Amino acid sequence: MPDDINPAEVAYIEFLADGKVAGKTGCNRLISSYTQDDDKLKFGIGAGTMMMCPPDFMQIESGMQKAIADTAAFTINDDALQLKNKEGAKLAVFNRATE
Questions:
Q1: Which CATH code for domain 7-95?
Q2: What is d(CA 43, CA 95) in angstroms, rounded to the nearest whole number?
């Protein structure tokens, strides 16, 4: 990954109050639903744009899509959301956006 690409600037998720999640996966936008019960988290089948982007952005996108598909649980530590699979392995980390 080139040093001038900051994944936090090109990939993010936002949890909305109505049980929906929206974001950007590196190249494309996404929208989906989610359910949460204690530390369990599951994303629904989502929709998104399907643009082709430079390989570095597509690499970020591929990783984020896999993380979302495999998410079964989460933790929040120091304003960082960690998505985890059913075995508890860390899939992705998202830092809270600063305003």
A1: 2.40.128.270
A2: 19
Distance, in Å, from the CA atom of 16 to the CA atom of 6, rounded to the nearest integer, reads 24
For residues 24 and 61, what is the distance between their CA atoms, to the nearest angstrom?
8
Short-list 60, 63, 67, 69, CA closest to 91 = 67
**With left for phi above 0 and alpha for psi between -120 and 50, is residue 88 left, alpha or beta?**
left
Phi–psi pair at 7, nearest 5 degrees: -55, -30
pLDDT of residue 4: 62
pLDDT, one tens digit per residue, over 71-86 is 999 999 988 999 999 9
What are the pLDDT digits (tens) for 34-58? 999 999 999 998 888 888 888 888 8
Q: What is the DSSP string of 10-40?
A: HEEEEE-TTSEEEEEESSSEEEEEEEEETTE
